[in-house]
């Protein structure tokens, strides 16, 4: 058995490929690490990696030593009978997780003594990387039996010793080989030859509890642990994926982490074609002073500018300037929602060659289908997708990204996929858009990212509550731009331009009368309510377009396009009833806005959809009507602090975006937001994924497919096509499991769904 110890499931039982064996896989992982980070002279990527973790340049040698050793020793725990039977397609059951067993091996007395012979090698750092590289290790679950009824397993000492000596010769050939003599039968009950319980408990209590406390007091040591563990995860995922797909490891990795982007690349590939698109649509294009000045901003800045001021192009000018000062390998534009990330890709990133550009979010594969379907579009026929079987590593070849912030900051809660994107983040220039809309957890992750990792970063939005502005400027060290009011005449003219008047009205009945009357006068009317059920009810009652989050993706995409196109036509009567989704994902220009009372930042975002593209010479004035709904849901009283005073100050008067900004400063939330736990930063020795806690996710809805789409779902899966188009968020009480679908996706009754109104909370016949 020991001559064929496996690391992977075999394609051809009885004749495993070298990369499927434990030694072969270990060699691939080691080689991946060497290509990325060394050997001998450090790579540019390794320097970026060390800088990203805020480690001193002198730490590179220690990082390389521990990373290389971790790659050599990470899978020794696979040399046990349960794992071997499992990957050999036999009915084997693992008694212990293999990476936990790898961690135990490091503290066997003979192994511990042997490791001490390597100068500078810290077994505690090795343990944190090796035992945690699958992000399934905690103080509570470490080296616990996976099944309470299974306690005995067999290890293969010769295979373990072979890997140990391979690793030792690699990191220091002068150290003598280890002669490992350990019992081959381990028993958690201690009735057989070797009891792992005592070893486990000694490690936890005598070694690792003290180490965990030390990590909390020593940021540099903690940074080393994070860098080594993440480096091992990258090398392991690369060594596995490249071997699985039959690619040449050296050339694949070297090509992925080779060339840098220049300022000329951004000008030619993104900025210039976007300008031509704007000029073709509007007939003109001129840079304004605020956009020109963006090139002079520091590498860490906060850009606050009104809606319609050209913030995004200003941000690309900042990116261009950063690359001029110091070339970087990637550019990331990170957005709070899938819709805004998709728009950012369509308008900007997609102008780059398909080999450089990427869109990453939960449904990006579907969004990319037929995105550019018109033959006259120069992007027609381009394929922006990546190799499915390379998973996150498929993006390592791309240079310019539009993505949801979760995709790249998910590593803060130990998301494995996000950690696999970490090499791109570490050598990038990053823009965070619409930061006002980040919920408390996501904003905390942003702050902690800025304070603990080093990349050029620009945060931007139209308006920001005082407390959050203070957090970014004082606590995170960002530089405000513009630094003072009136700094740019063109921007000041836009911010100070009269845009709308606001009227308080009694309630929904009066709002209905206003909406019908305005449409009768040829106006474009946007009505924003705070709940999906009210949105559906009003849309049905008034014959309006209905747009919210609870549609099947394919229907939501169609509804989104319908709304956008309808509002692009002037003097074209249209009434759309929508929810909070309009606050960022709908770039439209209404003549009349009707809104339920919402938090101040939401009110400002909603008003930004009224008279959005106004020009001073047109003297056009939007009309805003606000009323209080019957209940505050989904908001709390805390969310609505200051709203009443805010509305009182603008009721009946002429409103500019500058005035809204001043009132947000005066009445906006000022409470200090509590810093949220970050598993990546704070778990220390241990590593457990908490990826679903990056945002304050509501447990009210779940993604499901309709029961009448079940056959379509299986057909898509059979043909290996995305099933995203079928997914619809539904209230949890309507979702149920299907025996053929396991845990995901769940099913929901199609009798509650309408392509026109989305998923309802009552059967379809009751609304139609």
UniProtKB/TrEMBL annotation:
Protein name per the record: CRISPR-associated helicase Cas3
What domain of life does the native source organism fall in?
Bacteria
Q: Which residues form the Helicase ATP-binding domain?
A: 292-482
Q: Which NCBIfam families match?
A: cas3_core, cas3_HD
| One Pfam match | Cas3_HD
Single GO MF descriptor? nucleic acid binding
* Signal peptide segment: none
UniProt keyword annotation of Hydrolase present: yes
Report the Gene3D superfamilies cross-referenced here: 1.10.3210.30, P-loop containing nucleotide triphosphate hydrolases
Statement: the UniProt record of this protein carries the keyword Nuclease: yes
The record's Gene Ontology cellular component field reads:
cytosol
Coiled-coil ranges per UniProt: none
Q: Name one GO biological process term.
A: defense response to virus
Q: Which family does it belong to?
A: In the N-terminal section; belongs to the CRISPR-associated nuclease Cas3-HD family. In the central section; belongs to the CRISPR-associated helicase Cas3 family.
Could you tell me which residue ranges the HD Cas3-type domain spans? Answer: 15-238
Keywords recorded for this protein, A-Z: Antiviral defense, ATP-binding, Helicase, Hydrolase, Metal-binding, Nuclease, Nucleotide-binding
InterPro entries (alphabetical): Cas3-like_dom (IPR054712), CRISPR-assoc_Cas3_HD (IPR006483), CRISPR-assoc_Cas3_HD_sf (IPR038257), DEAD/DEAH_box_helicase_dom (IPR011545), DEAD_box_RNA_helicase (IPR050079), Helicase_ATP-bd (IPR014001), Helicase_Cas3_CRISPR-ass_core (IPR006474), P-loop_NTPase (IPR027417)
């Amino acid at each position: 058995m020991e001559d064929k110890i496996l690391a992977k499931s075999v394609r051809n039982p009885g004749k495993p490929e070298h990369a499927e064996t434990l030694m072969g896989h270990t060699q691939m992982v080691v080689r991946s690490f060497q290509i990325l980070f060394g050997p001998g002279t450090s790579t540019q990527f390794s320097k970026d990696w060390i800088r990203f973790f805020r480690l001193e340049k002198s730490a590179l040698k220690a990082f390389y030593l521990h990373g290389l050793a971790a790659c050599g020793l990470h899978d020794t725990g696979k040399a046990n009978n349960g794992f071997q039977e499992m990957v050999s397609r036999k009915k084997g059951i693992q008694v212990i997780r293999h990476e936990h067993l790898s961690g135990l091996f490091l503290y066997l007395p003979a192994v511990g003594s042997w490791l001490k012979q390597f100068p500078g090698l810290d077994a505690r750092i090795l343990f944190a990387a090796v035992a945690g590289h699958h992000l399934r290790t905690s103080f509570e679950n470490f080296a616990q039996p996976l099944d309470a009824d299974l306690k005995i397993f067999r290890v293969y000492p010769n295979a373990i010793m072979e890997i140990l000596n391979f690793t030792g010769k690699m990191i220091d050939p002068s150290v003598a080989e280890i002669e490992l003599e350990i019992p081959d039968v381990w028993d958690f009950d201690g009735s057989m030859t070797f009891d792992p319980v005592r070893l486990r408990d000694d490690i936890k209590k005598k070694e690792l509890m003290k180490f965990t406390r030390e990590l909390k007091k020593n940021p540099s040591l903690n940074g080393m642990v994070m860098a080594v563990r993440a480096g091992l995860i990258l090398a392991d995922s690369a060594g596995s994926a490249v071997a699985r797909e039959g690619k040449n490891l050296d050339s694949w990795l070297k090509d992925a982490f080779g060339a840098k982007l220049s300022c000329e690349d951004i000008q030619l590939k993104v900025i210039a074609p976007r300008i031509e698109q704007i000029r073709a649509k509007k007939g003109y294009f001129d840079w304004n002073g605020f956009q020109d000045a963006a090139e002079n901003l520091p590498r860490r800045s906060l850009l606050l500018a009104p809606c319609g001021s050209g913030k995004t192009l200003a941000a690309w000018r900042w990116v261009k300037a950063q690359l001029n000062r110091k070339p970087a390998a990637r550019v990331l534009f990170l957005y709070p929602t899938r819709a805004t990330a998709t728009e950012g890709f369509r308008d900007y990133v997609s102008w780059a060659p398909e080999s450089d550009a990427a869109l990453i979010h939960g449904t990006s594969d579907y969004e990319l289908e037929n995105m550019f379907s018109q033959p006259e579009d120069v992007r027609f026929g381009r394929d922006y997708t990546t190799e499915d079987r390379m998973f996150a590593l498929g993006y390592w070849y791309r240079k310019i990204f539009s993505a949801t912030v979760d995709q790249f900051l998910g590593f803060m809660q130990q998301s494995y996929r996000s950690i696999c994107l970490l090499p791109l983040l570490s050598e990038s220039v990053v823009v965070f858009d619409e930061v006002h809309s980040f919920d408390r957890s996501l904003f905390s992750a942003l702050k902690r990212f800025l304070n603990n990792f080093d990349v050029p970063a620009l945060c931007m939005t139209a308006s920001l509550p005082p407390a959050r502005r203070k957090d970014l400027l004082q606590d995170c060290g960002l530089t405000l731009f513009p630094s003072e009011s009136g700094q740019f005449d063109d921007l000041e003219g836009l911010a100070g331009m009269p845009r709308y008047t606001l009227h308080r009205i009694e309630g929904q009945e009066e709002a209905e009368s206003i909406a019908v009357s305005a449409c009768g006068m040829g106006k474009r009317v946007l009505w924003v309510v705070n709940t999906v059920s009210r949105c559906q009810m009003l849309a049905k009652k008034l014959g309006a377009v209905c747009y919210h989050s609870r549609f099947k993706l394919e229907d939501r995409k169609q509804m989104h396009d319908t709304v956008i196109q309808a509002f692009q036509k002037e003097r074209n009567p249209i009434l759309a009833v929508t929810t909070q989704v309009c606050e960022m994902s709908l770039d439209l220009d209404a003549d009349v806005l009707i809104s339920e009372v919402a938090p101040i930042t939401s009110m400002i975002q909603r008003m930004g959809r009224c008279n959005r593209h106004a020009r001073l010479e047109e003297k056009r004035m939007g009309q805003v009507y606000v009323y209080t709904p019957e209940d505050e849901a989904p908001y709390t009283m805390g969310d609505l602090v200051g709203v009443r005073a805010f509305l009182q100050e603008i009721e009946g008067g002429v409103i500019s975006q500058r005035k809204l900004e001043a009132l947000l400063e005066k009445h906006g939330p000022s409470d200090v937001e509590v810093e949220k736990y970050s598993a990546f930063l704070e778990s220390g020795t241990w590593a457990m994924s908490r990826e679903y806690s990056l945002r304050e996710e509501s447990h009210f809805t779940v993604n499901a497919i309709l029961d009448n789409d079940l056959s379509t779902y299986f057909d898509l899966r059979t043909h290996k096509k995305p099933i995203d188009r079928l997914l619809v968020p539904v209230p949890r009480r309507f979702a149920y499991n299907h025996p053929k679908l396991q845990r995901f996706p769940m099913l929901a009754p199609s009798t509650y769904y309408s392509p026109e109104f989305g998923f309802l909370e009552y059967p379809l016949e009751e609304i139609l």
